[in-house]
Amino acid sequence: MRTVSRRQALRLAAFSGALGYLGQMGFSQAQAQKLLKIIAWGGTYGDAMRSSWMEPFAAAAGIRSEIQLQSSSMETLASLRANRNRNDADLWLSAIAPTSLAQSDGLLSPIPVDQLKNASQLPAAVVNDTYVGIWSLPYGIIYNAKTVPFEITKWEDLTDSRLRGMVTAPYGANYNGMFIALLSILAGGDERNVDPGFALAKKMKPNFSIFTTSDSEQIRLLTSGEVDIVAFAPVANYFAARKAGSQFRFVCPKPFIPVSISNVAILKGANVEAATHFIDFAISKEPQQKIAQMLGCLPINTMSEVSPTMREAVPASTEFRFLQEGVMASQLSGWNDRWQREIQR
Questions:
Q1: Fewest C-beta in 10 Å: which of 150, 155, 183, 304?
Q2: Half-sphere exposure of 85 (CA within 13 A, CB side)
Q3: CA angle 81-65-307, nearest 5°?
Q4: How many angstroms separate the CA atoms of 75 and 54, rounded?
Q5: What are the residues whose beta carbons fall under 8 Å from the beta carbon of 86, sequence distance 6 or more?
Q6: What is the tens place of the pLDDT at every residue in 77-90?
Q7: How far apart are CA 99 and CA 265, in angstroms?
Q8: Omega of the bond prior to 234 within 30 degrees of 0, cis?
Q9: What is the pTM of this model?
């Protein structure tokens, strides 16, 4: 008779427990042994995903996962298009605009929303068979209170002549064109009519000094003193800047601040069953609280608590606006070209 050591017995018990959990979820042993591959950002994002989602999910469900690094969602979209039918990833973390384009190109598998037990705890607008929201990023203005001659409270303040040459603004396509859409709405247009937005940007143009393409560039310019104001930035950039000094302020300008949704989609040819359960875990209350706190964003799960630090920067009374990023997606290239011609030059 074969004997089993204590260590082997513990391993078998743990494996049996994982399979029991998976059995309740409808998993087979073959599904449990599948490695989920997730296209996502690295750095702080990757660290937060591993700690908040991937490691706890592996411990609970016995399904390991790994990150395939992307530098931007639009670059990943181009790669998915070029390598159609040769993709080996299961999940893709992205923004609504590139995800919408991928869905139009037939690069995604439908998400079985009826199998997401935690979907009812999310806003209905961020759950569908194309994507599911995973966190939200509020955008506002960051400025140096020591060098800016007045308190900034509204978007219109960016046109004030006292700010000449003090402001950095995003490139047209940066943040998926959200700054252009915001200006358009403020000026009486919308995501389909951006002419008013370009007219408003031209009023701000004398105040713009540098145009940035990344979060890190914004933070560096602000903390080095090369600029005094960031015209449009996610609140996470403010938390990074505050490490360099208490003089930096984050403003939720009137009349509202835009909020972008980062989302997850299931790719064509993926292990849909395992991917669906990963999504359900990621959008549940505790994992949402943890990753939001680590990233400096808002949890998408309405049952999750918002950290005191975030609540101080973005009060509960803040007016939010979810932009129509799906509508913006097909227009982004044209917006970017026009922004370079009319605003950046």
A1: 150
A2: 0
A3: 100
A4: 24
A5: none
A6: 999 999 998 889 99
A7: 7
A8: no
A9: 0.77
